[in-house]
Amino acid sequence: MGIPADLRPFMAGKREIKRSLGLKDRDAAKAVIPDMTKAAHALLKQAERDKAVDKSGDKSEPKPMPNKAAAQTERERQRWEHEQAQADYAADESFAADMEHEALGPIMDALSEGKEADASPAEIARAGRLLVLHEREKAGAERGSPTFLHAAEACKRCPRIAG
Question: Which of 31, 39, 134, 142 has the smallest number of CB atoms closer than 10 Å to its CB?
Fold first, then answer.
């Protein structure tokens, strides 16, 4: 039985109703067909009622999301603030390390070439530490080492170098 186009959305998009009678005997099938036809017409009438309800706007509105408890909202806010603080700290550390590398770059270049650097002893010591760390990092990359530390972080983690 064909379904009218305007009722298809209410019949799960079906174009027609098909039912297997599951009978091989023709006379038995003829006896069951009227009942199946009545059931199909009942489905169509239900689809028409659903369509009428849909057009009239009597459908119930979706329920609003329940409000979160104040404690849960506060925990989420604190977690977000903590994550933001960590991200800001990491960005500041990265920026400071980049600035240190930029400032000490010429000194590191002079030390790696064996030339004398025109800088204070403290800057030469910091540049020497960074140069050693960069060489270790480069050697680790050639060996395929999975861990590469940024020079500033490595300086902070090593108690002999930090200072």
Answer: 142
